[in-house]
């Protein structure tokens, strides 16, 4: 039963990490959208086209970098979850094997 609780805890932690990463991704996208909108408004002023294009390029690069970082974090969280679930599964298998051996010993089948 401890292994089942361990699996449930690992699942909860994984879901929490995924939720946090999704929130961060949404915030980054919203921030990028607002930056581009602000720069677009600035570009409507005469003589600011070159500067605005540069700033828009910067905003795009920063957004791509944030997205890349978030994807790396999501991949790391997924790998961590996989390792946790694998370890819990191995613990369940070991516990079950121990129970089988106990039954065999108790019934005399292990001789």
Characterise the protein shown here:
With about 110 residues, this protein is mainly alpha-helical. The protein has a domain at about 1-5 and about 55-90. It has two helices and no strands. The protein has helices spanning about 1-45, 50-105. The mean pLDDT is about 75.
Topology:
Layout: H1 2-43, H2 49-107
Helix and strand element order? HH
**Which regions are unreliable across 5 or more consecutive residues at pLDDT < 50?**
none
Largest sheet: none
Number of discrete helical segments: 2
Question: How many beta-strand runs?
Answer: 0
N- and C-termini, Cα separation: 29 Å
> What sort of overall outline do the alpha carbons produce when their principal axes are compared?
rod-shaped
CA-based gyration radius: 26 Å
- SS strand fraction: under 5%
From the helix content, strand content and strand pairing, which structural class follows?
Answer: mainly alpha
Mean pLDDT over the full residue set = 77
Question: Helix content range of the residues, please?
Answer: over 70%
